């Protein structure tokens, strides 16, 4: 009868596969669990360390960006102040030129 069933069903289901639960001694299973816990703990420590390093790098980058921005703002202020000074100088020169021209025109009349 078993031969007939084996011929009819060449792929036996999971009921005939050996169970893994009773093939390993409990101390070995507990050792594996303990090793897994240690590995998870080490991974968590590595993750915390990487996060701290990333935080420090972010703070350093932010500080550097603020420094560069402050330098750029200082340069822009210098250029703006020089442009304002030249604008006032040009205004003064044009006023003097206009006054001189008016005087000459008034003398010719």
Features of the shown structure:
109 residues; mainly alpha; rod-shaped
Commentary on this structure:
With 109 residues, the protein is mainly α. It has two helices and no strands. It starts with a helix and ends with a helix. The model has no long low-confidence stretch (mean pLDDT 87).
SSE order, as H and E? HH
Cα-based radius of gyration, to the nearest Å = 44 Å
Tally the helices: what do you get?
A: 2
Helix- and strand-based class? mainly alpha
Give the integer mean of the pLDDT values.
87
Distance between the termini: 140 Å
What's the story with the biggest beta sheet?
none
What's the helical proportion of residues?
over 70%
Given as residue ranges, the uncertain stretches (5+ residues, pLDDT < 50) are: none
Estimated share of beta-strand residues: under 5%
- Categorize the overall geometry: rod-shaped
Strands, count: 0
Which helices and strands occur, and which strands form pairs?
Blueprint: H1 2-8, H2 26-108
Nutshell version of this structure?
The protein is 83% helix and 0% strand. The chain has two helices and no strands. The N and C termini lie far apart (140 Å).
């Amino acid at each position: 009868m078993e031969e007939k069933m084996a011929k009819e069903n060449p792929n036996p289901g999971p009921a005939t596969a050996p169970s893994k639960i009773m093939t390993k001694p409990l101390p070995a299973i507990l050792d594996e669990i303990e090793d897994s816990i240690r590995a998870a703990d080490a991974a968590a420590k590595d993750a915390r360390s990487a996060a701290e390093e990333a935080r420090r790098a972010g703070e350093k980058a932010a500080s550097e960006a603020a420094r560069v921005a402050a330098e750029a703002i200082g340069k822009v202020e210098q250029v703006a102040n020089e442009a304002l000074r030249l604008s006032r100088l040009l205004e003064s020169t044009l006023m003097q030129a206009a006054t001189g021209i008016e005087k000459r025109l008034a003398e010719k009349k």
